[in-house]
Write a structure and sequence with these properties.
mainly alpha, 19 helices, globular, 2 domains, Growth Hormone, Chain: A, about 0% strand, membrane, single chain, MFS transporter, MFS_trans_sf
Amino acid sequence: MILFLAARPVTSPPVRPAPRRARAPFRLRPLAPYRRIFTVPGTRAVTAANLLARLPMGMLSVSAVLMITGSRGSYALAGAVTATGLAATALAGPWTARLVDRHGQARIAVPATALAVLGSLALLLCVHYGAPDWTLFACYAATATTPNTGGLSRARWAYLFRDDPAARHTANSFEQAADELCFLLGPVLATLLCTTLAPEAGTAVAAALLLTGVLLFAAQRRTEPPVAPTPATDRTRSPLRLPGLPPLLATFLATGAVFGSLEVVTIAFADRHGLRSAAGALLALQAAGSCAAGLLYGLRRQPGQARHRFPVCTAAMAALMLLPLLAATAGGPAALAVALLLAGTATAPTMVTGMGLVQSLTPPGRLNEGMTLAVTALLGGIAAGSAGGGWAADHLGGVGAAYGVPAAAAALAAAVALLAARRRPACPPAPVS
């Protein structure tokens, strides 16, 4: 631990574009952009460590729900505890990211993770030994210091390829696909551990993976971006005041509502058709479509500027989100499965392009904070979407009609993105250094 906190970061030299060579046909080298970004020394090790640290993000909430309901028999209590943790994360996340920007990833991520792991273990002990309900809220709120591991990884890519926009695009596409993969595998692993070993097993394994992954990630000092000097006038200025960022965060908020409502409505749809055990498989198809689209999106350099592509991506997402609505109202589970797979193909390109815009609009010294604000907006949207989707599933007379909630949220995201693109002045992106 002392070695991680005391070691000074060793920065790598700027990554220069490789000399031009005769290009083989694209069909013969489909994965060349990904092979290229992983030729940089240290990127493979840091990516493996970050994936290990990111997998618990899809495990912790599911594990907490299964553990609390298994012990207390109350879904209401479990939902309230996880909602409290979500709210605490929305408040604490930007502050943790600001500390990372000011003091470096290793110096902040390790102690912040240690505190979050202690909160998870305290929750496990309180549930196991029958502590009062209020202790569950306090313990789960302590996990809010968990650093945004995906944002930390994206910040490293942004630093390594600060002079290579095409490589940054490929790296961001890979990171989005990794997010989808972790949120696809995490709940499955958590459910398996909690139902086959013990209700506390999911939380215990998730905490161990998180701490181990962050320690390994922080030890990779060659790829860690140096602390960028921040002018005194910018230290108290929130990135929320940056031109163009608030409308972008509003789009992320609406996009989060798409994710949250789609999950709840799909579970309700499967339950109403007597296929509750298949709800995870239906949601996995949506994540699989997004993961595949994210990887394909990063294979080649995209034409034009990201601020012009973003409204197109959100419009595609809004159009494809109509498919689940049509399939659920006019078809059955099989049609819905196909519709969810197709609908997922638009979410990753939207997120990749949006995160790229966040990076371009945020100064280098506030990059982690800017990306964490985007994640916070997503979390807020997920919470609102979950509530709206649940209400629609109970009150709209048919679960199929409830798919109008994610469709409406996607349309709202597209409208906000289009209005912001028309009002945003044509200015060069902020340099990433």
